[in-house]
Every structure is written in structure tokens, then in C-alpha cells.
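Risk register update: the risk of archive-format incompatibility is retired. Evidence:
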Amino acid sequence: MKKQLLATLLASTVVMTACGHDKETTNKTDHTNKVTNTTSLIKAAKAAAKNVNSYASTYKNNINDGSNQSVIDFGLMIDEQHNQKVTIKDNKESTVFYVYDKKTVLKQNNQWIDASTYVGSQMVSQTEPLLYNSQFKLIDQLKGAKYEKNNGYTLTETFSDYKKYKALFGNTTENRKAINALEKKYPGIQGSIIVMFNKDKQIEDITNKLTLTNDNTTVSNNAVTTFDKINELKKLDIPDAVKQAESIQ
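Archived output:
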């Protein structure tokens, strides 16, 4: 439970779970805004996001407290109709499920089952860290981040105290309470958030590094979210076995 809490609270994109899911939009928008600083980059990236209709994304979170290591690995493919293929791996097991036609179908004991009415909403909520538009809940908080232009664009934010960390992630009462609990257990905190965009102002990856310390323990957390194949996934291939899955009674 403690590791699950850390994985949920400390990774930049998962801390936002108290917010509602953002609906992916297909509106066409001119995103040729001139980019010269952090504020204009965020504005241009949000405009460019309106043209992102399909993509593949990954989210990998590695937590190490010196004696134990926990790795959580998510993968998502989402097509223009918002059908999804999701993979989840941790230290002990892996899971694959599809979301399509308002159904959630997962593989269990080598069989595909329709779990829509059983755990469908719970399974879908796990894709939140992988959704493109969800990243802007974090990016909107980076208005003070360092701006760099290279082959694309980079925003870098650092923090070394809970005051700044709360400003970045304490966007809900639930999150603030969780962060306060972490502060009591781990008084020391430092880390960084790096967001990289391509030349079209589309997100390529987000890296969130965090170190928590107390008198006895150091916990390191490294979470990376990536996006590629933007607007290349027209339609996911849903296997026949998935389409024929029986509902859980």
C-alpha cells in the first residue's frame, strides 16, 4: 500500500487523479504561435494539443528505498475513435485490456472477459497518466519553469522544499492531505520536472525525478511519460477474441 501510495502521489502525471478525465478533442486549430518563453510555449503546446487525435504513450515509474525496488510500467495506444489498448506491468504480473464501444475487456487466466460492469471504470481510470491532454494539468503549473529552445523546446522546473512541491501538485484537498502525510514521514524533498516538446510543440516526454529523505531512509522516484506515433494510429486492430469476450456475471 505504501509503495502504491508513492507511485500514485509522487509521479507528476498520477498526482492529478483527483481531477476529472479530459476528453480528447479533434478541433483543428492554428498553433503557429510564436514561441519565445515559457508562457508562450505552454500556450502554443495547448493549441497544438487540439490537433492530437491518436498516439502511443508509455509511463514508467521506478521507486527505490535502498532495500526494495518497485517498477510500474504502463503502455497505451489510442486511435482516432478513442479505442484503447492498455498494458500494465509491475514486479509481479502484467495485464492487457482494451477499451472500445463503451466496453472494457481484459485478459485473465489466458481468457478475455468483458469486465465493463465489474471493474470497467476502475481499469479505465488507470489510463489517466497516459492521456495526452491530462499532461497539461501539470504543465499549466510550470509557468515559472526554465525555458530552452533546442531541436524542439524544453521546460525545466526544480524544487527543494514542500512549499514549491505543494504549489505544483497540491491542486486538490486530497492531494494536499497526501503530501502533508509525506512531509511528516519524509521531511526532506528535492527533485525536478523536465518536459520536452518537438518542433511542432507536441509533448515528447516528461521526466519527474524525486528524492525523499528522513533520518533513516532515502526514497528515490523516477517517473517518465513518453508520447510518439502522434496522429499515426487511425484504427486499432481489435482481436476477434476480444470482441467475443463474455461478460462477468
